[in-house]
Request: fold
Amino acid sequence: MDIKENYHAIKNQLPAGVQLVAVSKTHPAQNVQEVYDLGQKVFGENKVQELMEKYPLLPKDIQWHLIGHLQTNKVKYIAPFIDTIQSVDSEKLLSEISKEAGKNNRTIKVLLQVKIAAEETKFGFEIAEAKSLFQQYIDGKFTNVEITGLMGMATFTDDKEQVREEFLILKRLFDELNQLKTLETLSMGMSDDFPAAIECGANSVRVGSAIFGRRDYSK
Ligand SMILES: *Cc1c(COP(=O)(O)O)cnc(C)c1O
Reply:
């Protein structure tokens, strides 16, 4: 299968209204361009340095999403152009994004990353922390960010029922916060589990290897 066939196969599996974030990490700019030329505008990267290398080589109407852990001291590099930061996992990071967005006279969209996996994961809010930060946001604490939704990753397991239960935890939180202030994006699901994520309410999926092929970290 080549990238073009992969891309169309994925697109055909997505119901109307489900956004595809094409995750291009570790893949060269020319592969991103190939998928862009098929009509894809939204791409995800997980490292600032890699994004900064690709950004100048690619069309300016790409909406870049950062999906990996972000250190506060690196926010300034991406603040001028990043569309959405999906991996907001601390109040300190949210404050820094708001500050740097302000310096650039813009508002940056963010998703709160929430821990839903049973396995030990380093990054993401507990449910209660996410609720409390969202309330502070509603109260006007962060001026130059727009919290547009939530992002989560299920446990890496073959146990489909467990994965579904984890996705549904995030869906319930999404519905609860959505009562307080309207949210747009529930980002869950990757190459291996996006159909289940969509069944559980995801309206944005982050798909990498099923489009670009397996990642080769040895290069
Ligand atoms: C790499 C990555 C993905 C895509 O993973 P695939 O299994 O290649 O589809 C999705 N979300 C996050 C946060 C990632 O780091």
Remarks:
- The chain has one domain: 3-212.
- The chain is about 40% helix and 20% strand.
